[in-house]
Amino acid sequence: MKLLVRGAVEKTVLTLVSAVLFFGFFQFNQWLFSSLEYRDGVNWVFLPAGFRVILVLVMGLRGALGIMLATWFIDRELFSGSSMSLAFLNGMVSGLTPLLMLKLMNKWQGMGAQLQHLTASQLLNLTLFFAAANALVHHLVWLLLGHADINIWVDIWPMFIGDASGAMLMLYGLKFVLNRVHISPSVHPH
Known about the structure:
The protein has a single domain, classed as Arp2/3 complex 21 kDa subunit ARPC3 (Orthogonal Bundle), CATH 1.10.1760. The chain is about 75% helix and about 5% strand. The chain contains 6 helices and 2 strands. The protein has helices at about 1-35, 50-60, 60-80, 85-110, 120-145, 150-180, and strands at about 35-40, 40-45. It has a two-stranded antiparallel ribbon with strand order 1-2. The longest helix has about 30 residues, at about 1-35. The protein starts with a helix and ends in a 10-residue tail after the last helix.
């Protein structure tokens, strides 16, 4: 029973940590790139798109659930007055799309789930597929739920470009750092 409780607590903590990290990174992106905002919720450079993929690569489902929780918290401010279903589905899309794309890429290309072992082309494919899927699903949800002033044929491109550029900056930057950091196993006397 203790192990079950401990496992549940660890999973909850990982989910909450990923939610706090994603929310903080979202706020940092707003501060850094607010001048590059296309409209509410869509930026020409969106670094949290890369952070979404990183959280899912590192924490799996816990990372996806944390992103979903953070997005629900963010959307309560961005979509005040709108239906709760919009905020609910927006959070699901934000959190689950990177997890789904990672699983699909793993199945299609035999891609592993560790960033330092991904090839440059696998990382590029993951980034582009994720950015396309994220932009498409977000805009379909917004269109179906009657989000004001959505022109899917025009508005999808800034989100795709923002997610792709932000994710590439984050993922290639992190991969660069990981490939240069050599962690040697520590030796502990018994």
